[in-house]
């Protein structure tokens, strides 16, 4: 809505900034000079004990010499009440006694009509408040007392009572001059389909007024006192004032509290919100008996970047949290998310606060789960992931869920978090539960890997470390290859903790560019692992190092080194198990196993010799230069396969 020229100037001229600010601060009387409009107070925007917040009432501006906050009356209301520009103007206009301008005669007529509807709602709130003190409300008062609500709480939240009378409110409002059609249009009464007299919509219920962000009554919520009532909770129907999918209970006070830094907590119902506020968590709201809607999520994000969703700890509460994930994923953007506060089973926030006090809830808030954790829990909880097919199904489902995130950068970060969780889950999976126990004893080098320069790198402890260095060096050049061999990397038992840490980091960030990955490694693990790999002469002759852009060469080096590591470790596993069998009676089976394992190792050594011959001639037929031959000879000598005549 555009404002006519001069409206804001007139508004500022009618207001005293000192009076507007004075509602939020305590003036330092020793430092202030009210006669000159020179006022000082502790700043309302940051914690301090000295009066560094200055208001120049004559000029209409404020400035804090501590946090450097500055502005006029409109910006002050925006910041302290967490309002947008037009809402702040409207608040100040009411205070100054100015009518907000209408766009046209029809708009003014509509605004006047809404004003009359609000007046009817306010009259209903007052009527139900008075009814709570009558004899008919005895049971309701007892219930509220059992829930711990004293007179101060009843007054603060304007809780009332609707007796069983069919037309009690209707007649009371008519007596005050409210038109019949306004009573019905405001949702306070309903008209039967048969055309008979309208009747009160709320009967035999405790009444909770619902106000908008500006504090105006827009609807009612009612809790039935009778166990056989048609609905335990009843809200006002959709009206020109009220749309429950776009409204929040306790919206205005929660917005102001969130603007002061309190955590914004989303609970399920009225009583939870009241309990939270009374326990000191004043930025608490509820979505009025429905699951959180997209419009309500937008309202929440206007108040806080990461609202805390505190749902009941029962199956229904967890289900509501899971459904909220589906709503939120497509709307996620950088800096806007959700965290989940999971109540103990069978408890809601009100139960927890009464049992353990504010400290018990604060502990759960401190441990609130980010949404990615709850997404992972939803997709993995109760699932048996003991086969490649089931794991692949999980991967497909997670990819589909992450695909709902429109923000590419945020989607990438979610992918990183999911990969880390997947890696930890499968790495920790015990034997017999789908974990990879190592290769079968007959594992042998694949034909495609027998041309690898380090085909025998798995031969012995030193050779294993060399093969591991091939894998890590190649993946640092082409991180995406880690995803192609992810299960094999997860199952690999690294010879050194440093190598395992580097491999885990590469897997977790396999979608990053090589330069970014190296920066991350240096940040997390230091530069030593990178410098060590870069300085290994043994790797200098590898095709993937001589041609860093050759992805296929890197892939061949990685798969070849993995094959040889698996063959060697399979061989050792067989020897170890065979040694245990030797303690008993030797058998033909034992003899076969030893022979078979020896043959596998011999084939690995033979492939190594073939690789040695291959490296005598480069791809273009030229001889490998002196440096590369010396490096190759050194590698072969260290592996115990050198040629003394060479």
From TrEMBL:
Domain of life: Bacteria
Pfam families listed in its UniProt record: DNAG_N, Toprim_4, Zn_ribbon_DnaG
GO cellular component, one term: DNA-directed RNA polymerase complex
Example GO biological process: DNA replication, synthesis of primer
Record's cofactor remark: Binds 1 zinc ion per monomer.
Positions of region (Disordered): 429-452
Protein EC: 2.7.7.101
Catalyzed reactions per annotation: ssDNA + n NTP = ssDNA/pppN(pN)n-1 hybrid + (n-1) diphosphate
PANTHER family with a match to the protein in the record: DNA PRIMASE
Domain topic, free-text comment: Contains an N-terminal zinc-binding domain, a central core domain that contains the primase activity, and a C-terminal DnaB-binding domain.
HAMAP family: DNA_primase_DnaG (MF_00974)
Quaternary context: Monomer. Interacts with DnaB.
Annotated function: RNA polymerase that catalyzes the synthesis of short RNA molecules used as primers for DNA polymerase during DNA replication.
Protein name: DNA primase
Organism of provenance: Rhodosalinus sediminis
This protein's encoding gene: dnaG
């Amino acid at each position: 809505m555009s404002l006519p020229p001069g409206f804001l100037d007139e508004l500022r001229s009618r207001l005293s900034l000192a009076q507007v600010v004075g509602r939020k601060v305590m003036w330092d009387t020793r430092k202030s000079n009210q006669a000159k409009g020179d006022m000082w107070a502790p700043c309302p925007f940051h914690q301090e004990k000295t009066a560094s917040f200055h208001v120049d009432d004559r000029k209409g501006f404020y400035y804090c010499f501590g946090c450097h906050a500055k502005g006029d009356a409109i910006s002050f209301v925006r910041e302290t009440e967490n309002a947008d520009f037009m809402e702040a103007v409207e608040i100040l206009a009411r205070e100054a006694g100015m009518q907000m301008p209408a766009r046209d005669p029809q708009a003014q007529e509509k605004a006047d009509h809404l004003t009359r509807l609000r007046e009817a709602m306010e009259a209903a709130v007052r009527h139900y408040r008075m009814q709570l003190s009558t004899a008919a409300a005895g049971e309701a008062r007892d219930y509220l007392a059992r829930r711990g609500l004293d007179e101060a709480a009843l007054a603060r939240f304007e809780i009332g009572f609707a007796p069983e009378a069919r037309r009690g409110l209707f007649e009371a409002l008519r007596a005050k001059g409210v038109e019949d059609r306004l009573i019905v249009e405001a949702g306070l009464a309903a008209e039967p389909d048969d055309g008979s007299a309208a009747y009160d919509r709320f009967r035999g219920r405790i009444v909770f007024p619902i106000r908008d962000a500006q504090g105006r009554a827009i609807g009612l919520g009612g809790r039935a006192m009778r166990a056989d009532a048609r609905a335990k909770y009843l809200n006002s129907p959709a009206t020109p004032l009220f749309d429950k999918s776009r409204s929040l209970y306790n919206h205005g006070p929660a917005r102001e509290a969130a603007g002061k830094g309190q955590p914004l907590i989303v609970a399920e119902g009225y009583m939870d919100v009241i309990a939270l506020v009374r326990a000191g968590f004043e930025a608490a709201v509820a979505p009025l008996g429905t699951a959180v809607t997209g419009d309500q999520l937008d309202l929440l994000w206007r108040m806080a970047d990461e609202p805390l969703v505190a749902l009941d700890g029962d199956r229904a509460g967890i289900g509501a949290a899971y459904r909220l994930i589906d709503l939120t994923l497509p709307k996620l953007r950088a800096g806007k998310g959700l965290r989940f506060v999971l109540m103990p089973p069978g408890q809601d926030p009100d139960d927890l606060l009464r049992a353990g006090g504010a400290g018990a809830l604060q502990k759960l808030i401190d441990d609130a789960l980010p949404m990615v954790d709850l997404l992972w829990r939803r997709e993995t909880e109760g699932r048996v992931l003991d086969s490649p097919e089931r794991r692949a199904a999980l991967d497909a489902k997670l990819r589909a869920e992450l695909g709902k995130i429109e923000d590419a950068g945020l989607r990438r970060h979610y992918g990183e978090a999911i990969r880390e969780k997947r890696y930890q889950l499968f790495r920790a999976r015990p034997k017999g539960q789908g974990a990879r126990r190592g290769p079968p004893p007959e594992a042998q080098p694949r034909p495609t890997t027998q041309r690898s320069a380090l085909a025998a790198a798995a031969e012995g402890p030193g050779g294993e470390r060399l093969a591991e260095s091939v894998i890590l060096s190649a993946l640092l050049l082409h991180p995406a290859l880690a995803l192609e061999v992810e299960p094999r990397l997860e199952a690999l038992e690294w010879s050194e903790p440093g190598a395992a840490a580097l491999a885990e980091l590469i897997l977790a960030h396999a979608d990053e560019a090589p330069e970014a990955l190296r920066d991350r490694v240096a940040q997390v693990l230091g530069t030593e692992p990178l410098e060590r790999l870069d300085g290994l002469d043994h790797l200098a002759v590898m095709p993937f190092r001589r041609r860093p852009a050759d992805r296929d060469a890197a892939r061949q080096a990685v798969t070849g080194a993995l094959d040889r590591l698996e063959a060697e470790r399979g061989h050792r596993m067989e020897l170890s198990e065979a040694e245990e069998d030797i303690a008993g009676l030797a058998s033909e089976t034992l003899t076969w196993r030893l022979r078979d394992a020896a043959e596998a190792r011999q084939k690995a050594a033979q492939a190594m010799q073939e690789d040695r011959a291959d490296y005598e001639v480069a791809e273009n037929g030229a001889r490998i230069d002196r440096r590369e031959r010396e490096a190759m000879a050194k590698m072969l000598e260290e592996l115990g396969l050198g040629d003394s005549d060479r």
